[in-house]
Amino acid sequence: MKALYNGLNIQDLKTQHPSDIAEVINELNQKERIIAFLLLPGHLKAEVFTYFSHTVQEEILKELGSKETAEILENMAPDDRTEIFENFPDLLIKESINLLSDEEKRIALNLLGYPEKSIARVMTPYYIQAKKGWTVKQAMQNIRRYGKKAETLNHVYIVDKENKLVDDIRIGKLLMADEEQTMDSLMDYQFVSLTTTMTREEAIEHFDKYDRAVMPVVSESGVLVGIVTHDDIFDEIERRDTEDIQKFGGLEALDLSYTDTPLLSLVRKRASVLIILFLGEMLTASAMGYFEDELEKAVVLALFIPLIISSGGNSGSQAATLIVRAMAIKELYLKDWWYVMRKEVLSGLLLGLILGVIGFIRIMVWQQAGLYDYGPYAHLIGLTIGFSLVGIVLWGTLSGSMIPFLLHKLGLDPATSSAPFVATLVDVTGLVIYFTIAAALLSGTLL
């Protein structure tokens, strides 16, 4: 049997999970990857294909003939197929859709017709439904008839004559019922659903709130049109969290994965934010220029500038991280800003006091040990550093915690209050605080 990679052959791969098969094939070079994929059994191709990156998927489809492409797309779950089409060039989408059967083409076009970020884009139209007047026996017959194609059999969805969703019944309840009972006798008319116009972010909140593994999707008029399963929601959560982490790291969110993003696109996404931060940091130089006379008189103050501004930036980044995450998982809401401010004022004071004491002790120890001569006013320099750290850490903590609330109030994503952005803000304002305190404590001595 032809070896594929690291001694594995086709027979070995057939026994593995599709995700593991895709991982093995993905390690091959382009030519070997195409051959290995073509050698897979027909029923595995569609499953394995969904686990490839968008770049590899496009590469494979371009190399395959129309028959092989049609077979793969025809056998894929509609939601997985829609996700693939979202990242394909328009021409390839058109060519691919035209290869589908009339029924699958209708489903594909219907899903692509919904707004890009709507939950309807990731739903599947393959589920089990029953009429409220049916008996349990009729419902079970319907399950046997269509169950193989359904994405999940967790629930049977009950619809009225107009196909509007009126209830959902767990399959376990159906199995335990007498076969002559009507579906209406098993219903409690208590169900939760998503609407086609709902965003994926809102859908994630519904899954979390109601702790469901699958949820039905209805039109605005209540007509049942599909279901969304937990694995689709997990994918959306991963995308959302990845986007937030990238924004918080100080860059625009990537449209594709890191490995699929072209070099120039990656540079553009990072450069825009770096330029803004660089222009912001220029204000640091302006602030230092404003206090040039103080620096000339007390050059020793310059030694502690990195210490001062980094402490403020670090405290701000910590606070921003905590608040953004708490808002993301619904621990905090906009109305909680005053509670957060009070808590962060105390946190900032205590943290600043801890660092301030350490800073003061460090200067006095160095002075007494002869490691550095700060002159006759070493104690005043120590107090300047100590008080400056208290003020700057407090300011950094307040800035980092309040900026996410401000952005949320303005209708922006709190995650854009990135750690670099907060650090840059505190760098500039921290210098003002530092030299203002220095001027107050050292006036008449060094200044």
From TrEMBL:
It is a multi-pass membrane protein. Residues 187-243 form the CBS domain. One of its GO terms (cellular component) is plasma membrane. The keyword S-adenosyl-L-methionine does not apply. GO terms for molecular function: magnesium ion transmembrane transporter activity; metal ion binding. The keyword Disulfide bond does not apply. Its main location: membrane. Gene3D superfamilies: CBS-domain, MgtE N-terminal domain-like, SLC41 divalent cation transporters, integral membrane domain. It is found in: Cell membrane; Membrane. The chain crosses the membrane at residues 271-291, 303-324, 345-365, 377-398, 419-442. It comes from the Bacteria. PANTHER family: MAGNESIUM TRANSPORTER MGTE (PTHR43773:SF1). Acts as a magnesium transporter. Homodimer. Belongs to the SLC41A transporter family. This is Magnesium transporter MgtE. It comes from Pontibacter qinzhouensis.
